[in-house]
């Protein structure tokens, strides 16, 4: 009963409401704006105090000589211009950690993407066990980096570690992975690939699902082989997804820290000390201004990397 | 003849399988692919299995060369030391309190702003969204020095509140909730307005009840991130009674317990197992969430 009586007026009121919306702009608009800002307020307050404020404060600090002792005595802080940045560029340790971080990025991102893509292509082709495979491969992603670092440090042990035991089966005398200045960083990268490729795999799977069946089938009818289907159909259509994956993986890898903190303490001989680790150390020494400047250079690197990846992987999109 | 005879039953069998409706011989899954994928899965899971098995060995056996594949003596002594000798119950509670508070805060505050950004018109909307999105890219290390100064000044260093507050409202949640709420039909809101509902009431009684799936995804992802968070709790916690699990584990791993592998592996199990359980129970939401934010 109520449905037939109430439904006729509804469309009748709705139709003019839509039409008069622009004429009655002020009261509804203002109501909406007030409500919107009320809803936004808690977030914005927290955000300004704990995110935006500190981001700007950090930039300000990077131009000062602020030390730990200055928390109590803010008037002792002096403006030093770009001194911190000049010092950083000349600091051999900072150069070293920059190199380490770049190496980690350049090794880690392509490897992680390749593993994720291969696994995603595989899972995309199977008919059964899809769910199990997807969840299983994703497991490492949800775990604490600190905890898996403890586990991998144990796996990498020189004597009795799982890696060297397995290598021993085929007659290879495994090295002390984390004791070597050349192997320790790649060893951390290997763990990072294991820990992180699951995220990209899920994203790539979602991307693969958006490729229309008809395109692949048409190519098959035209006689395209598996490789050329991948090269000329899958890869180009997956381009935006790959870009997204490269960006988020790159941003994450530029900030690596926990692995090194737990597995190598940045050693041996600073071979696994990262830019974040450097900042953390400087903070520990009480050099707040210097630490802030280092963190801003890292931030700059993140922005630059994202920009480069957009240019490089996104160029075909722009041409269209 | 034999070819035709063997092919016929095969075709009948594949016709029943739902995946074969797209046709195409190349689409049929070869057995080697299953073998490779399951082999890969084995490799991915091995570190977890090794962690669990080793944590049940006595300390001397953990260090045995060559390692024993199955514990000769199964013991819970490592766990016993964690929970009675060391203060892991406290660390566990601290982790749980921080993660739950951060999760609740993000679910509430991010959905509020997400709705405003998705469905309401207001001055400053575009700028606000751009700024919030922009901070997604900012490394945590950029803010922690001033944040430390701030929390020290307002007396929150070495407190759980100091750990919680900076993560109570994050940009990721806003992005996720905005994406989801945008997909809800505008007619719902218009109808509620015609019925005379105020703007805030529309959010709380019309929109929020429909956000279940997105809130679940956000809740789980936030909980996992917060549970595993390391750098900030490491900076804030100064006495042992304020350690979260990852902080405690990391400091034990680099401190004087560095060679007590049995103990450390048991600690890793305690950190990892709860999230693996949560994930396996609720993995559907997580997968949806990643796909939702990754591919719009």
From TrEMBL, chain A:
Q: Does the keyword Membrane apply?
A: yes
Q: State the UniProt keywords alphabetically.
A: Cell membrane, Membrane, Transmembrane, Transmembrane helix, Transport
Please list the residue ranges that the record marks as compositionally biased, kind Pro residues: 1-11
InterPro entries attached here? Answer: ABC_transporter_permease (IPR051393), MetI-like (IPR000515), MetI-like_sf (IPR035906)
Q: Which GO terms describe its biological process?
A: transmembrane transport
How does the protein's chain sit in the membrane according to the entry? Multi-pass membrane protein
Give the start-end ranges of region Disordered. Answer: 1-26
Is 4Fe-4S set as a keyword in this record?
Answer: no
Top-rank taxon of the source lineage equals Bacteria
Report the subcellular localization: Cell membrane
The UniProt transmembrane annotation reads 33-57, 102-123, 135-155, 187-211, 232-254, 288-310
Against Gene3D superfamilies, the record matches this protein to: MetI-like
Task: Please name the PANTHER family in this protein's record.
Answer: ABC TRANSPORTER PERMEASE PROTEIN, INNER MEMBRANE ABC TRANSPORTER PERMEASE PROTEIN YCJO
Provide the family line.
Answer: Belongs to the binding-protein-dependent transport system permease family.
This chain belongs to which protein, by name?
A: Sugar ABC transporter permease
TrEMBL record, chain B:
Quote the cellular component terms of the Gene Ontology held in the record: plasma membrane
UniProt keywords, alphabetically: Cell membrane, Membrane, Transmembrane, Transmembrane helix, Transport
Highest taxon listed in the record's lineage: Bacteria
Question: Which PANTHER family would you find in this protein's record?
Answer: ABC TRANSPORTER PERMEASE PROTEIN MG189-RELATED, ABC TRANSPORTER PERMEASE PROTEIN MG189-RELATED-RELATED
Its taxonomic path starts at:
Bacteria, Bacillati, Actinomycetota, Actinomycetes, Propionibacteriales
State the protein's name: Carbohydrate ABC transporter permease
ABC transmembrane type-1 domain span: 92-282
Could you list the residue ranges that cross the membrane? Answer: 31-53, 91-115, 127-148, 160-181, 202-224, 261-282
Q: Which GO terms describe its biological process?
A: transmembrane transport
Q: Which organism is it from?
A: Nocardioides zhouii
Q: Which family does it belong to?
A: Belongs to the binding-protein-dependent transport system permease family.
Q: Where in the cell is it found?
A: Cell membrane
The record's region (Disordered) falls at 1-21
Q: How does it sit in the membrane?
A: Multi-pass membrane protein
């Amino acid at each position: 009963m109520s449905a037939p009586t109430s439904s006729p007026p509804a469309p009748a009121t709705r139709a003019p409401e839509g039409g008069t919306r622009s004429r009655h702009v002020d009261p509804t608009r203002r109501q909406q704006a007030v409500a919107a800002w009320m809803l936004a307020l808690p977030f914005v307050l927290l955000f300004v105090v704990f995110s935006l404020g500190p981001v700007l404060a950090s930039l300000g600090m990077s131009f000062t000589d602020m030390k730990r002792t200055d928390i109590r005595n803010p008037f002792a802080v002096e403006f030093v211009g770009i001194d911190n940045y000049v010092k950083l560029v000349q600091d051999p340790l900072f150069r070293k950690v920059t190199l380490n971080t770049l190496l980690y990025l350049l090794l880690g991102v392509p490897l992680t993407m390749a593993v994720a893509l291969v696994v995603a292509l595989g899972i995309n082709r199977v008919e059964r066990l899809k769910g199990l495979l997807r969840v299983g491969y994703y497991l490492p992603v949800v775990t604490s980096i600190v905890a898996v670092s403890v586990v991998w440090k144990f796996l990498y042990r020189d004597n009795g570690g799982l890696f060297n035991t397995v290598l021993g089966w085929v007659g290879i005398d495994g090295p002390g992975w984390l004791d070597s200045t050349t192997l320790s960083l790649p060893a951390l990268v290997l763990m990072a690939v294991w820990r992180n490729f699951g995220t990209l795999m899920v994203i790539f799977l979602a991307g693969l699902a958006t490729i229309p069946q008809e395109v692949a089938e048409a190519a098959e009818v035209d006689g395209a082989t598996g490789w050329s289907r991948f090269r000329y159909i899958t890869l180009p259509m997956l381009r935006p997804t790959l870009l997204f994956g490269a960006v988020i993986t790159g941003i994450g890898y530029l900030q690596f820290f926990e692995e090194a903190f737990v597995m190598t303490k940045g050693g041996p001989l600073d071979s696994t000390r990262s830019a974040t680790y450097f900042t953390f150390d400087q903070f520990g020494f009480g050099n707040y201004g210097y630490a802030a400047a280092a963190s801003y250079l890292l931030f700059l690197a993140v922005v630059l990397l994202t920009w480069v990846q957009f240019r490089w992987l996104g160029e075909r999109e722009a041409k269209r | 003849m034999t070819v035709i005879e063997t092919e016929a039953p095969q075709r009948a069998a594949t016709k029943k399988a739902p995946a074969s409706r797209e046709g195409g011989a190349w689409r049929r899954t070869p057995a080697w692919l299953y073998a490779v994928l399951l082999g890969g899965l084995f490799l991915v899971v091995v570190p977890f299995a090794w962690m669990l098995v080793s944590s049940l060995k006595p300390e001397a056996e953990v260090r045995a060369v060559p390692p024993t594949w199955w514990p000769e003596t199964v013991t819970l002594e490592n766990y016993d030391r964690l929970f009675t000798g060391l203060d892991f119950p406290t660390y566990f509670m601290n982790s749980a309190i921080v993660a739950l508070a951060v999760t609740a805060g993000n679910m509430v505050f991010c959905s509020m702003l997400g709705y405003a950004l998705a469905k309401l018109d207001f001055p400053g909307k575009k700028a606000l969204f751009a700024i919030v999105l922009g901070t997604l890219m900012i490394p945590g290390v950029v803010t922690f020095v001033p944040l430390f100064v701030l929390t020290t000044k307002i007396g929150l260093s070495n407190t759980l509140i100091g750990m919680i507050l900076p993560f109570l409202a994050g940009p990721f949640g806003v992005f996720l909730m905005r994406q989801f709420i945008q997909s809800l039909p505008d007619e719902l809101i218009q109808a509620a307005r015609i019925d005379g509902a105020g703007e805030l009431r529309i959010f709380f009684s019309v929109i929020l009840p429909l956000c279940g799936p997105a809130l679940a995804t956000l809740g789980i992802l936030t909980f996992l991130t917060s549970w595993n968070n390391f750098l900030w709790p490491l900076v804030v916690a100064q006495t042992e009674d304020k350690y979260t699990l990852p902080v405690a584990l990391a400091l034990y791993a680099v401190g004087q317990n560095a060679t007590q592998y049995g103990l450390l592996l048991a600690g890793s199990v305690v950190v990892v197992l709860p999230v693996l359980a949560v994930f396996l129970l609720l993995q559907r939401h997580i997968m949806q969430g990643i796909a939702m934010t990754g591919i719009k």
